[in-house]
Amino acid sequence: MDEIDIAHDQLKRMRGMTAAYHRQFFNDVRFALTVGTALFVVGFGGIEPVFLLIPFIMLWAACQTAFDASYLHFARHYAAGLEQFINSRLPNKVLVAHEIEQVYLYPLNAPKLVTFSLRGPVSWFGFMTMFITAGGIVMTLAGAWLGWDLLEGSAFVAYWAGYALLAISALAVGSWWFIKGEGERRIDTVLREAGLSSVE
Question: Where would you tag: which of 7, 85, 105, 148 has the fewest CB atoms within 10 A of its CB?
Fold first, then answer.
């Protein structure tokens, strides 16, 4: 196999990974929505303590879907580098998917809330990210409000202290990884050392 064949084989692998983690992302979103809705139904049906599960389920779902998105970043970075590598060895630029993704989905190497770019351009992909996030926050607040009076004393303190610890740690690490760009910076460093660049 020559260099182009090897790069093409890796490109197919990365495109397969992109598709797989898109599917996984929406599977996780649907699962969280289904479980959250079911908990509301059960809670309004008379078993009110289940309301207290909703904030934790939504936080878990937020972290899980961000994990899925981190693999989308990985696959897109590597695929972009491979496409540019192959293009550089052809008489004409024929692989432009990475350029389309950069403007149509969300830009790589830019601060973002998972996949919502904080520097633009605004896209439907980014809007859906924020829409789903806002929905999770609403469900979290509703569950917290409905379950607020169900705990007292040390149980109340333990529950909310535990939740706050998990939420704050997720926000802190997520900000470092996505908004400050630590994750993408690591990928880009490796690609550049290999003579590849994920973003032109």
Answer: 148
Mean pLDDT of the region 154-172: 97
Decide if 56 contacts 155 (C-beta within 8 A): no
Amino acid identity of residue 41, one-letter, is: V
CA–centroid distance for 121 within its chain: 18
The CA-based diameter of the chain, rounded to the nearest angstrom, is 73
Is the bond into 121 cis (omega within 30 degrees of 0)? yes
Give the number of other CB atoms < 10 A from CB of residue 198: 24
The predicted-structure confidence for 25-42, as pLDDT tens digits, reads as follows 999 999 999 999 999 999
pLDDT at site 67: 97
pLDDT 10s digits, 93-113: 999 999 999 999 999 999 999
In a domain, 200, yes or no: no
Q: Show the domain range for 59.
A: 3-193
Q: What SS3 class is residue 151?
A: coil
Residue 35 lies in a domain: yes
How many domains is the chain partitioned into structurally?
A: 1
Domain membership of residue 199 (yes or no) is no
